[in-house]
Amino acid sequence: MKFATKLVALLVGLVLFTSIAVFFPIYSASIEILEEKIIGEFEGRAVQTIDKLDRTLYERRADIQVMSTDNIIASRDSTPKEITERLIFYRDIYKTYSSITLFDLNRVRVAGTTGIGLGGQHSASGYWRDVARGEDSPIGFYRSEQLDDTMLYFAAKVRDENNEAFGLVVSRVPLARLFEIISDVAKGDGKEIEESILIDLIDSDGLILFSNHNQRGILTENIFFTYPSEIQFVEGESRGSRHTHDEIPYMAVFAREQGHLDFEGNDWVLLVHIPEEVVFGLVFELRNQVLLVLLIVLIISVSATWFFARSLSEPLKQLHDATEKVEQGDFSTRVNIGTGDEMEQLGNAFNKTTSALDKMESQRKQLEKAKTEFLSITSHELRSPMTPMRAQLQMLLEGYFGKIPRKQRDSLEIILRNTTRLDKIIFDFLEISRIEAARLKFNFVHASLTAPVQDLVKEMDAFLPEKQIKLNLQVGKLPKIEVDPDRAMQVLRNIVNNAKKFSPPKSTITIKAELKRSGIAFSVKDQGAGILPENLARVFEPFFQEEQTIYRKFRGTGLGLTICRGIIESQGGKIWVESEKGKGSTFYFTVPLKPVREILPIKLLFSPKEDVEKKIRQVFVEYLGALGDEEFEQIRVKGLRYKSLSDYVAELQSSGVLSDEQAGEILSRIRKIFETEKPAEPAKKAEENKAGKGKPKKSKGVGNEA
User: Fold this and answer.
1) Whole-angstrom distance, CA of residue 203 vs CA of residue 265
2) Is residue 690 a contact partner of residue 599, using CB atoms and an 8 Å limit?
3) What's the fold here for domain 438-591?
4) Residue 501's CB: how many other CB atoms inside 10 A?
5) What are the backbone dihedrals phi and psi of residue 685, each rounded to the nearest 5 degrees, phi first?
6) 684 to 196, 446, 491, 521, 573: CA distances (angstroms)
7) Whole-number Cα distances in Å, 365 to 332, 369, 370, 653
């Protein structure tokens, strides 16, 4: 994870943690406070409403008692017409009743404001039942069949001047009038909220008398439909009770009628159902506002932190990228940090360091160029007098200048052999100088290597015939490719030559050539003494020779395999050796199917193998301590190749010697050592340069990978 991302994630985590730690307690407290406030407010409204209802009922009862003592209504001498006019007078004054009627004690309708059914006998129960029980002023409900409605009635006995009851005056109030009173509990909060609040008026038995969401009343005499709730209307228990109606969550509050009126069933309860979205509306609004503020704070914090982190991470990224370039050998890289603080000072110090390294690298390249030029010029200059010197010596030996005594001849032959050897050394140095200066000449033709290989084997049959070594050629028909046959045969000749030199008499050398996906693959397997494991990585180094009698007998310049390596690698091929002491050696090299026409210089004389060994040894000692040297020696004898190293590290990891993290770090460091030290892949680089892709990249595979 990048530095800036880590910093932003840290701050976001702190902000979220702080927000949660602060917001949720506040949010929970707000819910409780607002819930208590809203419930208390609606509970207060319910109490006021039930009190208003109680007062209204009390007033209506007083009204009916006033009418029962009226001189006209309470007189036995008054005519029905006079009584009717008086009842209409009271109806118009109070403007509450739907009708007022005077009955005699035989239930005969004497007079009424509607003028309907006069003289007929009234059979409705309710107030007649209350009168039969001796009540003077009954109150209750009954179902009006004529109006198809439930009515609230008020009744009072009418007595004459002797206080003898002779009639009953009854007034009726529609339940709609009660609804006008009880609906006040939901008013003042907006039409939408008012319509969402449900109100039920319930009697002492828990039966609904009236409801604004289900306006059903008395079905039959004194029987009501049961209220569908388990709420117990006990003070302190039902306050804030939750339930669901039509899949909508509600919170309920109630108020109980205080029983100022003395009639059966007057212990009414006003139940108010408030949708939770109304109860928590303010809470939700507060929550949304807080979340919005938190979101804004979070966005500002993240933006500010990201800007701050970028101001820190950008210089670090510049330094990191520049360091990687320096690690890859690009000392011309510079950083441009203008923060005006210690980071800028660090950047300036880095620039001074890379400037010094760049200067040193320039001097090294000049020295390298001077070395190559010196080697090339010296080789040419030394070789120039060698040709006439050899010619003169040969002429002396052949007697062109007269007969030479035996001792002088032997001395001249020694001089000629050493002159020839010196000429070979000078030629090899000249060849190496061409490889290092990228001036090695190739003559590419479209041809198959089958015939040149066969001719070479016939040629090499005549070399060291006294050893009677058999050359076993295994080559099929190779395809025609763009190749320089002479250079390819130069490499094969050198390897076969060495194989014959260092193989025992009457042994067999197997030469193979076959088509592979990467190119034409050659191998030369002998039955010689083999090479020590610790020397395998140095076989292709200049001047290296195995310290054995047979090697000293056929001592050469020690540059042949180095030149072979330069020729093969300059064409993007690979060359390597596999050997086991006492069981012979097998040399391999590949010739790519597509030639490299623009070759790059390859460093041969000053090999980095020893530096590579030293650095890898240091890595093992750093992670394994004293055991690091022993572990390194076990690997070195097998050859320091990245694959063998990675396999060995994996073995140590699986056995628990190294942790996963340590194994990853070791492989990463070893990979960087190889990428820094090993030569570039000429074929890939030449193609990139030709295509104008800028600086060539380092090769991931080289012929002599140590």
Assistant:
1) 6
2) no
3) Heat Shock Protein 90 (3.30.565)
4) 19
5) -65, -45
6) 79, 21, 22, 19, 11
7) 14, 6, 8, 41
Model confidence, pTM? 0.44
What distance in Å separates the CA atoms of residue 536 and residue 577, rounded to the nearest whole number? 7
Is 187 in a helix, a strand, or coil?
coil
Distances (CA, A) of 507 to 384, 491, 528, 548: 41, 22, 8, 19
Q: 339: which 2 tokens?
A: 């923060």
Using CA atoms, how far apart are residues 112 and 102, in angstroms rounded to an integer?
6
CB 539 within 8 A of CB 609: no
Contact, 104 vs 158, CB < 8 A? no
Domain segments of the chain: what residues?
29-288, 342-422, 438-591, 609-677
Q: How many angstroms separate the CA atoms of 692 and 203, rounded?
A: 98
**Interstrand relation of 508-516 and 470-475 (parallel, antiparallel or unpaired):** parallel
Q: Do the beta carbons of residue 416 and residue 390 sit within 8 Å?
A: yes
Name the nearest CA neighbour of 635 among 664, 669, 594, 670: 670
Answer yes or no: are the C-beta atoms of 547 and 532 closer than 8 Å: no
225 CB neighbour count, 10 Å cutoff: 13
What is the DSSP annotation of 576-625? EEEE-TTS-EEEEEEE-SS--SS------SS--HHHHHHHHHHHHHHHHT
Three-class DSSP category at 667: helix
CA pair distance 672, 676, nearest whole angstrom: 6
Report the run of H or E that residue 198 belongs to, with start and end: strand 198-202
State both tokens at 354. 């890379």
Give the Cα separation of 330 and 328 in Å (integer). Answer: 6
Cα–Cα distance for residue pair 50/45, rounded to 1 Å: 9
> What long-range pairs does 113-121 form, CB within 8 A, spacing at least 24?
113/84, 113/87, 113/88, 115/84, 116/146, 118/80
Residue partners of 680: CB distance under 8 A and separation at least 6: 600, 696, 697, 698, 699
Of 52 and 143, the structure prediction assigns the larger pLDDT to: 52
pLDDT in tens, 665-682: 888 888 777 655 544 444
Checking if the pLDDT of 227 tops 60, the result is: no
CA distance 65 to 309: 88
d(CA 162, CA 375): 157
Strands of 99-104's sheet in order across: 109-112, 99-104, 165-174, 149-159, 139-144
Q: Give the DSSP H/E element, type plus range, for residue 512.
A: strand 508-516
| CATH number for the domain running over 29-288 | 3.30.450.20
* Cβ atoms within 10 Å of 412's Cβ, excluding its own: 16
**Length of the chain, please?**
706
Whole-number Å distance between alpha carbons of 250 and 231: 13
pLDDT tens digits for range 156-190: 999 988 889 898 999 888 777 777 777 776 666 55
pLDDT value at residue 229 = 44
Residues 6+ apart with CB under 8 A from 319: 335, 337, 346, 347, 350
Tell me if residue 698 falls in helix, strand or coil: coil
Residue 472 burial by Cβ neighbours in a 10 Å radius (0-12, 13-18, 19+): exposed
In angstroms, rounded to a whole number, what is the distance separating the alpha carbons of residues 80 and 235? 50
- Token look-up 């306050």 returns 239
Contact 275, 250 (CB under 8 A): yes
User: What is the distance between the alpha carbons of residues 168 and 107, in angstroms, rounded to a whole number?
Assistant: 8
Report the pLDDT value the prediction gives residue 662, as an integer from 0 to 100: 86
